[in-house]
Design a protein that fits this description.
heterodimer, A: 288 residues, alpha+beta, Uridine Diphospho-n-acetylenolpyruvylglucosamine Reductase, domain 2, Uridine Diphospho-n-acetylenolpyruvylglucosamine Reductase, domain 3, Enolase-like, domain 1, four-stranded antiparallel β-sheet, B: 159 residues, Ubiquitin-like (UB roll), DNA polymerase, domain 1, 2 domains, 30% helix
């Protein structure tokens, strides 16, 4: 592999200082399953990698006293996918984490890495958006918290300042009567990248939709919300017809590109069908 | 680049390694420790030929910088047998003729070990899921699944 410096700080404060002092050429290293591939293939030429492996503050998945979920940035995909509370109450996130790569990938890959690589196709990003997650960020100037969708500014680009590290994602407890879901389309079942990913969360109250979030992956420069499709569901009882209408609206909100994985037309078709199916699935889970 | 020293624990033995930190766990285990069971197939985490167990979980060692494995328990195919007694999965691969060229087999067996650890009594579908990150270009997988299944279905304590 090409040369880079390697630092392994043992505290968050030290990591932030190290990243800051090394400047633009330094990158935080999570599980490495994406970063090291990019380095090996020459897409990235970091002057230094700052390992996050020694920083205990970034570990762990757990529920806070108020029922919200905290996922440390260094939590692995497999940890997230296997966590009982995530599967039961934040199902979309478990769905997303469970389909990344292979067991080998998921045992190393971290949620912080998956989100901060800012790939529009990242499998945990649409679920985090659908679940209204917030990203906690540490930097030289202190800590801040933003909605997860504000982390991305384009493919592979984030709004993080030099020296800033995402430390955790915090997901609010879904209200009673909520269900969420994520599904992606890939030609292969494993070791593949989403052609389209769709995540939904519905809250059903008195038989009608009280709240809806729909997030689309791999159909825009960043993961996006299909806000008009969300609105179309409010106040209505979920049926095949209502879900299909939300799918059609979501397809019109997507701005996909043609690439090796799919054409614009195919991606719009997938958004329509997958959104419709995901709305039905979230409704099932909300009522289950 | 400055070489770094870290302790690396492989198959229960501690090694003090002095090496450039941009080398992978796979490179250090193969070239410095001369444990050449794990193979480099793709080098990008797709094929699973470099699979090792780190703290009991399978990872692609071609995508792990070796200092990252410091402080953890690394296990390779060489650490699976108990002296001259092969691990039940190793015996099953021989008995079922699950090996052809052999390149994928160290990774495949470790993925099998992890599968049975995670899902004792795994079904064929669970076995296929467990080895989905390991490519074999010879066997068509049937005999590999047969071999792992035979151990999964064996009465506990047979070995």
């Amino acid at each position: 592999m090409r040369h880079f410096d390697y630092a392994r700080p043992t505290s968050l404060a030290e990591a932030v200082r190290t990243l800051r002092s090394l400047g633009e050429g330094a990158r935080p290293l999570g599980g490495g399953t994406d970063l090291l591939v990019q380095v090996k293939e020459g897409h990235l030429r970091p002057a230094a990698l700052v390992s996050l492996a020694g920083i205990a503050e970034l570990d762990g998945v757990g529920l806070a006293g108020d029922g919200s979920l905290r996922v440390g940035a260094r939590a692995t995909m497999q940890e997230v996918a296997d966590h009982a509370a995530v599967r039961e109450r934040f199902s979309a996130l478990a769905d997303g984490a469970a389909v990344v790569g292979s067991y080998q990938t998921r045992n190393a890959a971290t949620i912080g890495g998956n989100v901060c690589n800012a790939a529009p196709s990242a499998d945990t990003s649409p679920p985090l958006v659908a679940l209204s997650a917030r990203a906690q960020i540490a930097g030289v100037g202190g800590e801040r918290e933003i909605a997860v969708e504000e982390l991305w500014s384009g493919p592979g680009r984030t709004t993080l300042e030099p020296g800033e590290i995402v430390t955790a994602f915090v997901v609010p407890t879904p209200p009673p009567g909520s269900g969420s879901h994520y599904e992606r389309h890939t030609p292969r079942k494993v070791m593949d990248i989403a052609v389209v990913g769709v995540s939904t969360q519905l809250t059903i109250d008195g038989g009608v939709v009280a709240a809806a979030r729909i997030a689309l992956g791999a159909v825009a420069p960043t993961v996006i919300r299909a806000v008009r499709a969300e609105r179309s569901l409010i106040g209505r009882a979920v049926s095949g017809e209502v879900a299909a209408e939300a799918g059609r609206i979501a397809a019109s909100e997507a701005t996909p590109i043609d690439d090796v994985r799919g054409t614009v037309a195919f991606r719009r078709y997938l958004v329509e069908k997958m959104t419709s199916a995901s709305v039905l699935r979230s409704a099932e889970r909300a009522l289950g | 680049m400055a070489r770094q020293t870290h302790l690396l624990r492989v198959n229960g033995r501690e090694h003090e390694i002095l090496a450039e930190p941009n080398r992978t766990l796979l490179e250090v285990v193969r070239d410095d420790l001369r444990l050449t069971g794990a193979k480099e197939g793709c080098g990008t985490g797709d094929c699973g030929a470099c699979t090792m167990l780190v703290d009991g979980r399978i990872v692609t060692s071609c995508l792990m910088l070796w200092p990252e494995a410091g402080g953890h328990e690394v296990r390779t195919i060489e650490g699976l047998a108990d002296g001259s007694a092969l691990h039940p999965l190793q015996r099953a691969f021989i008995e079922h003729g699950a090996v052809q060229c052999g390149f994928c087999i160290p990774g495949m067996i470790l993925a099998g070990v992890a599968t049975l650890e995670r899902t004792p009594g795994a079904t064929r579908a669970e076995i296929r899921d467990g080895i989905a990150g390991n490519l074999c270009r010879c066997t068509g997988y049937q005999k590999i699944v047969d071999a792992i299944e035979s151990v999964a279905q064996a009465p506990a304590g047979r070995d």
